[in-house]
Amino acid sequence: MNSSKHFLDPSQDTAVAWARRKETILATLKMFRMTLDAVRRHSEWVESRHDISSVDLWALWELAQSPGLRAVDLAKTMAMPRPNTEALLDGLLKRGLLRVESDPLSSSAGIYFVTFDGQRIADASPQFGQGVLKAAMNNLPDDALLNLAQAMSELVQNLPFLEQSAALQPMAELLRPGGHAQAVSPDKKSHPSVI
Questions:
Q1: Fewer C-beta within 10 Å: the chain N or C terminus?
Q2: What angle do CA 152, 193, 179 make, to 5 degrees?
């Protein structure tokens, strides 16, 4: 272990302190498993109920909340690469769940709106349209959210096999077999199987 980090309370018996630490690690691991399972189950529920991915639902939900977003704005809102977001929007357009209009402030960008069918899907999942994990974090008090962010930052710093690009991939897609989404090149306009 890293000797520069303080792991055990010196006022406790060492064996008791190590046992408590082990119990805490196992309890936390179980909570991670439950969290990932909830994300997976939500994704499966969305796909079976609406025949779209949970990422598609999130995009519809965001556009229902803020009509008239540009692709770049939606990419920032969803913390996804812009090419992936554009491919996602193209897929939703092809399914008739979105419509695009010319942006009066830009000759090159379009602004997106949900159609009646897209709105119907977004309205069917108001609590979890943005995903169960983000919805749960939105329900945390500020102090708990800050503590979670700090703890996750420290955890991530200690992870082996860390891939920075995973931060920009939707969680449900990371949980699929194969586990990662590839960024789509800007010239590729087809809806990828993994976003």
A1: N
A2: 35
What pTM did the predictor assign? 0.77
pLDDT in tens, 100-149: 998 777 766 799 999 999 999 999 988 889 899 999 999 999 999 999 99
Dihedral (CA of 132, 136, 137, 139) sign: positive
2 residue type, one letter = N
Domain boundaries, given as residue ranges, for the chain: 14-174
The neighbouring-strand residues paired with 98 are 114
Fold entry, domain 14-174: Arc Repressor Mutant, subunit A (1.10.10)
CA dihedral angle for residue 60, residue 61, residue 66, residue 68, rounded to 10 degrees? 0
Tell me the residue ranges of DSSP E strands in the chain: 98-102, 110-114
